[in-house]
User: Fold these one by one.
Assistant:
Number 1:
Amino acid sequence: MSRSPSVRERLSPGESAGGDRRLADPAVVGVAVVAAAYLAVFFEVTNVVGGTGRTAAVVALAGVGGLALARAVGERTALWLAGVLFAAGLAGYFLAIPASRRALFSVRSVALDLLALSTGLSVLRLALADVWVLAVAPVPTFLVGYFAGRGRHVAAATVAGGTLGFLVLTGDAGTGAAVAGVVGLALAVGLSTLSTPSRRRGHAGTFALVVAAMVVASATVTVIPAGAAAPLGLDRGTTTLESSLSGDDELEVIGTTRLSPEVRYTIESPVERNWHTGAYDTYTGDGWVRSGERSAVNDTLPGPPGANDSVDVTITAETESSALPAPWKPVAASGGGAVEVDERGSLRLAEPLESGETVTVESRVLDADPATLRNASTDYPEAIEERYTQLPESTPERVGERTEAITAAADAESPYEQAAAVEAYLRSEYDYSLTVERPEGDVADAFLFEMDAGYCVYFATTMAAMLRSQGIPTRMESGYTSGQQVGDDEYVVRGQNAHAWVSIYVPDHGWVAFDPTPSAPRDEARDTRLADARADGAEDVDTEASAPDQTPETDVDSDETDPEATDDGAQTTEGTNNSTAGNTSGNGTLGSSGIARLDGTRTGTAPTTTTGPAAGSGSSGSDGPLGSLPDPETALYWLLVAGLGVAGVRRTGIASRASRRIGPTLPRRRGDPAADAERAFADLERLLAGRYRERRPGETPRRYVDAVRTLGADERVETVAEAYERAAYAGSVTRDEADAARRAVRRLALERLPLIGRFVR
């Protein structure tokens, strides 16, 4: 005997015919808004890692499939189908991951990854993030389409809202998406509840107020656990360059920044280099992400594939530190607790170093002359080429076109020569400044065509994007410059030495560093910031070895310095040649003097920003005595808050209640004595009703006053009542009588106020 569908699983007789009407229900607008919000986040991910077209096609197919099945199958069957689709997608994702990485999977690692995703691990950090999105995104879209097709708009919005909530937890959904999701969810729930025109008219004001309150709440609270989203309209303050470069696995390009002069490390090293702390592989258009897992360092790590020298470096933490700066490439570490290594070869501390703790790192430093690097092969490993030539799909083509023009003008043929040409171009054509306005859209494109100045993050990001557009594997690196030399092999490294640069992959040699940031303004800003801190008596800006009365500060950035050893932008000035026999970046072979400014340069220019002392020491981004004007987003936020406040006060009756309570205490006076006397009695009625009793229907003013007098009312109520009677019945109240009534009511009202009443009795 076959089982007939239950009532819940079966469509009602008119439902199939009215399916189209269900899609025309106003609540569908809310469902569409919240669904669009989470889909936009998924497409932002695929824009970075690729696969937007195929993801859009699969998601559209899933949504249409859900709508079609809404009239054919019951909800239990639809949920089973969604579960099967989800399991199949995850299985496909698992099989797409290379076997070497699948071997690292375990129940524990998967559980930890799920926990990390819910506490700020970006989807972009997952292996094959594009495949993950392709596996996951169709499932909620299928359910949204199915529930919307059945007229279950609240259920559809809940599925979409849950998906968006997950993306908020991962940190991939920003404030805008969160606000859109709140609005969509509120619209879907509210319009489903207000199903009839009469109810919508009666509750429209309250509903709009609730939606506005939800928007303000979601915009005010920082919803992302990792802290990527700031409350809308609230200033986070100016971030230091060091803190912006130490954002763990995600780096967001910010605007104005400042330098921190506090000492972080004392480093003893036989070579002078940039001290590497990390590298990033995925460019998002507005920042960087490093993907992959970490593993414990249990043995010596492999060094660079080409010729290299072994050096031992001792790092002493002067403050608590979570980074381990060392010359590239570190292969072993001892002391200071457990050390981990990520997939890019960077050493990471499992636990922070305490002040005074020391770690010894063995590094293998590249030893290759420019001619060897210039003539190196371009036969890149497939994994390296795929991972480090990635660019967002939305990257403008003009970035690649400008890069081609620059390298052609320099007659650069090999990747090494192309990198040197781009490095020289950026140094010579752009100024250094810590005071910049963060651009909209793609950072590299904006810096290259719309800005005149920036700091190391802008220079390095732009150079990396330019080289990737030419198919050259490039990564963004962060760490510290060599710092202040206080001995033959000893350096004091401060927070202001935080720096970003790039490295290109050269087959048979490994990663080779290039530094596109100009030198002189960076040196001036750094030196000025340190001098100001010393003059102000700031603490922790010197060690015994670095204090001015002990050791004069050494300018470590000379014409004979390896470019890897220079400060943030601490290269030679424009037109000089800093090549040495051991130069490994090649900037000496193609100096900036050899790169002519191209025709048709930046299409739009921003005002030249400060490159002098103010740029180094300023702690805010104000452009003048009154500071900068608020951005449109901030202005819109505060207008919304103000409008919500006014609407809420009016809707809840707070304004009228406050007016009734405060009004009698104000010394207001009208031109007509009769009107003043009548207003005085009306105010008196409200005062007496709150303390004694209300005036009953049909009760005359005189009888009411006599009644409350027997309950203990003040005799001054008689004055008010008499003035009212003359005004209302005789029409002959005088100005003095009306004023006396007003004063009596005002005094009675003031006596009821907390604290104030003690002084007026």
Note: The mean pLDDT is 78.
Number 2:
Amino acid sequence: MIYGSMHEAIGRTPLVRLRLDAPDGVEVYAKLELANPFAMKDRVARHIILRARNQGVLRPGAPIVESSSGTMALGIALVGRALGHEVHIVTDPRIDTVTRAKLRSLGCELHVVAEMTSQGWQGARLERLDELVRDLPGAFWPQQYSNPDNPGAYRELADELRADLGRIDTLVGAVGSGGSLCGSVRALRRTLPDLWAVGVDCVGSALFDQPDEPRRLQSGLGNSLLPKNLDRRIIDEVHWLNDREAFEASVALAGEQQIFAGNTSGSVYRVLGDVAARARPGSRIVGIFPDRGDRYADTVHDPDHWAAHRLGELEVSLSPEAVDYGTPVRSWSRALIKGGVDKDQHLLFIESNTTGTGMMALRSSAALDLRPVLLTGDPDRYLGLGETGCEVLRCDTNDANALRSAIQERFTREEIAGVTTTSDFYVPAVADLAEWLGLPGSPVAAVTLCRNKALLRAKLAEAGVGQPRFAVVTAPDEVADAVAEVGLPCVVKPADDSGSNNVLLCRTPEEAAVQAELILGIHTNVRGMPTARTVLVEEFVDAPEFSVEMFSRDGVAECVGVTAKRVAGAPYFVESRHVFPAWLPTEDRAALVDTVTAALTACGVELGPTHTEVRLTADGPVIIEINPRLAGGMIPELIRLTTGVDLLEQQLRAAVGLATSLAPTRKGYAGIQFLIPGREGVLTEVGGVAAATGIAGVEQVRITGRVGARMRPARNAYDRLGHVIVSAATPAAVDDVLDAAVAAVRLEVADEPTGDAALPRASAGH
């Protein structure tokens, strides 16, 4: 294969079957990451640098600085120099002469610290690196120990193993930064949930709660500090080898398997022998071999070096001693980690909606033994936030890099259980963060597709899924042709807003042109995000409206139920009443579910709740929109009342990788009626709430409008003043109770005072 640059030759490394004594049918393989241009960290360097360039964090020609004593330095040098960057490497006296020569020949600037600090050589190197970052304008620090793009780089390695072997039962890997083993295990467990992960460390390393001995001789694994990328929760078993055992294993690897490698590969080789000897017949075991032996010719593979460091005086174990996790060890030992690492688990919420389920979700985290954290740019937006007991991390949630920095600085990876949101606008950001952190989630492309209705329309058309006729408009002069193509009346709406905002039924070309120009002129949405500035002109489908509530797991969507919907206030499309479950003939329900299932499959949605709005025409269902998140409008509460299924809890469980259950435990019907202003004016008084609450069947009466605020006939969901939720035995009874409760609520409206334009609107936005 021919490549245009050396960094393109990274990856696709060989897989070699090892000759080891093992039970019949046990297969043991070495993934030769040492066959990359320099070593395994080439993958990390390429992934981190390319991601940083794509995100604008690393500008063309800007310097790159990193702390490394070996393979990461070489990877940064390879990729950075190939892409035209100045590269500065901070290292320590342990750097071998081969690596030093390679780095200098590649054109890197080396900074060798003179002595270690109280936190070992790594601490001294990080202090020097901080100075460089301050002194070099625009410098980019890959931060291999805390940047989740380090473990993220090993998704490609996992894909290669899957392609070559299919099934893998055990993966063995050395642990230094935590990237290679943790990243590979996470990626493999998406399809191999029972994969057994074995970490290999060295005696004198603090990674797995052992006493730190900074003067250990091994390099490439172990650490005096706990890297943020290390997630010990996903490692099942850990082995420690002392310097003599690791060096002897490296020599044995060369003699027995003809693989000339460093001490990390040697240690993995030694552990593979033990794992294979204990394996069940038919097991398939893979070890990751990170580094070639040329860097270790005058250390690991040099008897004089052994003698100078009196390695012969160290005790040697021919097989590992099984110890309890936390027991100090001096020679080859192994321990099971399960239960040994006890860290608070945080569920990160990226913003929230403002209409009830958002604060409910934060409170619900406690029931799953999770600590909720709300990342937000404006905590004051959320009424009742202080009562949830969640941690608030303030940052610019509209900036992907700011979000990543906030998370990277605040948390270690093993403290993060999941990431989610209850806000429509932040679903793509959550998908991006989940991918970055290796957490459960739907693909970024899938949720981005659903959030942009213009992209969605194109995908559904390609898949042959029923939908209205449509045309996409990005400039005012395109509107006339779009209307002519779609026909009148038509619906004109933004491609990427929420809550029926700026959705209008237009009966003339002139109305459509005015509405399209309005939408095209809006540069930011209610959350301050840039809009797509794209308009959809769609056929008006005059047919009953429903929403289909689905929940996907591993790409398979299951129907939770169908909601009957009413809208009010034409020419606007503000939802006024929901009843769940919809009373439908069996064949109609099946048609709705089949259509939505086909749409979700076409979009590639893999995990979590979706809320799809559909109209049921005489010719079959047509998709109005797909929302790749939990239904709004308090529909989850209707589902809980009628089935016993708490969809909000299931969303949280899915976000952290826990099992979910959608099995109903009760039957019934429930409904919600939104309180919608009948005219413009000022809300002067709210009454009748107690009377409405006292009506049999009423579950909740909530007023969100504020006395003294302006109100108007609803043009979007933000104009609603509150809601009433009821439950009953039949759909007809639900309607009757809703009608009675709404009649009992009294909303007094007065004309707005002349000249007082500063009065606030009645309802806070989403």
Note: The chain has a mean pLDDT of 94.
Number 3:
Amino acid sequence: MMFPNSNKNIIKKLTRKSLKANRTRNRYVILAVILTTWLLTTVFTLGMSFIKTFDMQEIRMIGTTADVALSNPSQEQIERLKQLPYVSHVGLDTKVGQVIPTQEMGDLDISMHRYDESEWDKMRAPLLGNKVNTYPEKRNEVIVPTWILDKLNIAEPTIGMTLPLTYRSEAGESTESFILSGWYTDYSQLRSGNAGVIIVSREFAESVGAGSGDKGSVASIAFKGGSGIDQNMSRLEQDLKLHEDQNLASYSNTESQNSSKMATALGIAGIIVFIMFSGYLLIYNVLYISVATDTKFYGLLKTIGMTRKQIIKMVNGQAVRLAWIGIPIGVAAGMITALVAVPLAIEAFTLDTEVEISFHPVIYAGAALFAWLTTMAGCRKPARIAAKISPVEAAKYVRTTTKKGRHGSKLYRMALRNMFRDKKRALTVFLSLFIGLTTFLTVNTLVLSMNTDNFIASYVDNDFELVNKTVDFGYQGEQKQKLSEELAESVRQMSGITDVRKTYIDRGGSLGYTPEVFGKFVDDIVMRYGMERPTDEQLKDSGMFWSVLIGIDTKYVTELNKSLETPIDVERFEKGEIALLSASEELFNRGGSLSVKLQGDGC
């Protein structure tokens, strides 16, 4: 009769003794676990921080956390918005006036805005940095962005200092001294250039006739989580019944952002898979060599009665103890890297909107879990190999080869034979080196490619541009031609200039609607956004159908012809007989006739 016998303590003791007898192997396994955990922690932190920083960068450059904007909202529409179940916040942004720049201001484009409580507290203030003081209350109090103060040569602003400003409002043009009640760091100028906002009080807005009424106001709308922005915009158009002079626009290009996030996430996932596979091969290779070296030892254990399951438990136990040492060290190294190196890496390829480092516990728990799974996967096969060793095979086992050399005992040939004596082990070593080098080169290429020079070379055709600000949207003064052929020629003659191209924009022109040319285009917009289609008469007469007219340099057409099956007639294009539409080719037919009306022109 056999009695059950617990050998747990014996297995643990053998595991400890085996670890003490293989100190060199232990160092390599621990190092492999540390490297795997450290790389996983770093990649997780870098990826999550990059996505978080990119999201915050986009929002800060836009200047608001709102999703869409509704122009000229009525009070009834605002109340209706607050009751909609898919809307979380509604704020009101009112343009009060336009600052008339002095000679010292240069080409600054400064407007004066008043925000209601929801707009300021929920959508604007959370994105601003280095805020001093709260929202202005008295009539002549203002809050000014620090970059505008820098442009005004105010390096050290103080509460209560005066700012003389000349502005244009509904009440006319006026010059007044305002009191600086606060300032903040604004990031929207990174996107808009020299255009900025000075925040004024409600009392001032009412005094110049901008405190009430729909004109000049924008309702900022933030949606609740769940549905997409495009879907919610379609619902808004149906629920609010927009007027002809109203426009509903998204603050951000969510489609491009989502595709960018998806590409980033896939890249990070690919790197993580490479790191895990590389760590698996390294741990597997070290343990496999250890098992092969200790073949006789495992055979003797079989001789004295150790079962296959107990040997597997013993080998796994060694890997578990080594992982307990390596994973915490790897996580700690990853945390130090996140504090020191990750901010530097992200700052190298992001704009000046501050870096957001992600220290969420899930990152470190996930990295530790992936490192644990990698270690367990790496020891699984060696443990099974050790368990299969029989006492007879172990007694006869000799790590040598029976293949005889035909070219003598030259050292390099002996080395080659020794390398490939165990072909499986040699394959594992080479595969581990290949994956490790591939991972290194991939990460190195990604990091080195994320710099300003590569970005400019890939996405920006020109090095700088001169812009006539008087034709921009929002400019209140007289439109003037600031750029001349003489100026273009003087730039062309400068040292280092290789090419100068001119682009003309007419924002006051209009495009005549004809159903034969633009019918498919309108139908596509209606289908994509779930809108009610206007009639052809409405599109012709109400001003709903419009476009910006742009005159481009002929050199662009010449370059475009190189990639077109049917090239554009350059001579007819220069005469104005051919126009190009920036839209999908499937929605238009070549050769269609269209009419344009230029500002101040009769054709």
Note: The two ends are 111 Å apart (CA to CA).
